Amino acid sequence: MVQGGRAAGLDFGEDAVTLGTGDAAVLATPPWESQRLLPHLETPAGYAPIVNLHYARPGPRAGALHRHAGCALPMGAGAAGGVSVTVSAGDDAAREDQATLGPRAWAELRQAALAFGLDGDWPEAPPPCRVVKERRATPRHTPGPPLRPPRLPLANLALAGDWTDPLLPATIEASVRSGEAAAKALLR
Ligand SMILES: Cc1cc2nc3c(=O)[nH]c(=O)nc-3n(C[C@H](O)[C@H](O)[C@H](O)COP(=O)(O)OP(=O)(O)OC[C@H]3O[C@@H](n4cnc5c(N)ncnc54)[C@H](O)[C@@H]3O)c2cc1C
User: Fold this and answer.
1) Host domain of residue 34
2) Model's pTM, two decimal places?
3) Among 33, 68, 77, 183, which is least packed, fewest CB within 10 Å?
C-alpha cells in the first residue's frame, strides 16, 4: 500500500503489516512482480531462459565439464549419482521438445566426456532425463546502457534483486550487492 510517496503497508495475502513512520522495507521480488506492485517501474524488456537437464546416469562422481553452451556437473556419488547439464541463454533448448532435447544433449555431453576422459560410464543410449525449463531465468542482456531502476522508488522502500544491479549480469553476486545497496540507501 502506497500513501504520500511512502510504503504505508505490506499485504502478504493472508497477512498484512502496517508500516509506521520510522519503518522501511526492501522489495526484492522478480522484476515483473516488482512492476506489478509499483506499476511505474521500468523493468527489463525481455528475459532469457535457462534449461536444466538431469540424467539418471549410474556411476561414480566424475568431475566437472564445461562446454560452450553451459556446463555439466556430475553429481552425487555411487550408483545413485547423476549428471546435470545447465544451458544458459538456452533459447533453442527451451523451444525444443524434451523427447529430442534429452537424447541430443546427451550425445553432445557424452562426446565431450569421452574426449576429456571423464570417469564413469557414458553409454551411447541416453539415460532417463528430466528437463526443467526456467523461461524467465535472467533478464536478457542487450546492447546499450543498462537499466538503472531507482534504488529508492519510495522514500521508505528500497529495490533489490539481481536485475537492479547496474554493473553485473543477473547473478547471485548481483543480488547480494543489490541487497547491500538497498540497506545502505535506507540507512542513509
Ligand atoms: C536455473 C538457474 C540457474 C542459475 N545459475 C546461477 C549460477 O550458477 N550462478 C549465479 O550466480 N546465478 C545463477 N542464477 C541466477 C541466480 O539464481 C539469480 O541471479 C538470483 O537467485 C537472483 O536473486 P534475487 O534475490 O534477485 O531473486 P530471486 O532469487 O528470484 O528471489 C525473488 C524472491 O521473490 C519471491 N517472490 C516473488 N513474488 C513475490 C511476492 N509477490 N511477494 C513476496 N515474495 C515474492 C520469490 O519467491 C523469490 O523467493 C541461476 C538462475 C536460474 C533460474
Assistant:
1) 2-45+142-187
2) 0.85
3) 68
Instruction: State in Å: Cα 177 to ligand 1 middle.
Output: 14
Ligand 1 centre to CA of 118 (Å) is 31
Integer Cα distance of 87 and 71 in angstroms: 7
Task: Kindly give the distance from the C-alpha atom of residue 179 to the centroid of ligand 1, in angstroms, as a whole number.
Answer: 13
User: 94 CB less than 6 Å from ligand 1?
Assistant: no
Per-residue pLDDT of the chain (188 residues; tens, 9 = 90+): 899 999 999 999 999 999 999 999 999 999 999 999 999 999 998 999 999 999 987 665 443 444 444 555 555 444 456 888 888 889 999 999 999 999 999 999 899 889 988 888 889 999 999 999 999 999 988 888 889 999 999 999 999 999 999 889 899 999 999 999 999 999 98
113 lies in the same domain as 55: yes
**122: left (phi > 0), else alpha (psi -120 to 50), else beta?**
beta
